[in-house]
Amino acid sequence: PMAKRDILFHCVVAYAFGQAMHYFVWLKAVPDQLRGVQAPACFQQSWRSLKKDLGPMGAGVGVAICMVGWIAFPLVSFDLWRGIYFACASFHGFFEIAGLSLLGWRRIVA
After folding, report:
1. What's the pTM value of the predicted model, to 2 decimals?
2. φ and ψ at 41, to 5 degrees?
3. How would you write the pLDDT of the chain (110 residues) with one tens digit per residue?
């Protein structure tokens, strides 16, 4: 029989794998599917696409938030960052579910 610690370890590994697949699909596979060429996008193309999707202000704010996070990471305890990550991930999950429900609503109304 597997120890409780082993089961928890396998659950964490499965969760991490699922997150990696989730991010691959939404951040790489779906955007690349919409591109007309087979070559991966360079940094400049990715930056232009980000500005097109979010607008120049939104892209700049997103980059600034990421930079603040990278600078602040070594200054804050790991437990706090873990809490921040799971809070953001939870919001992200609810946000996606709400978006999916809106997609379903459009199909019903249209």
Report:
1. 0.55
2. -75, 140
3. 678 888 999 999 998 999 899 889 888 888 788 777 888 888 898 899 889 989 999 999 999 999 998 898 889 898 998 898 889 888 988 888 888 887 766 666 65
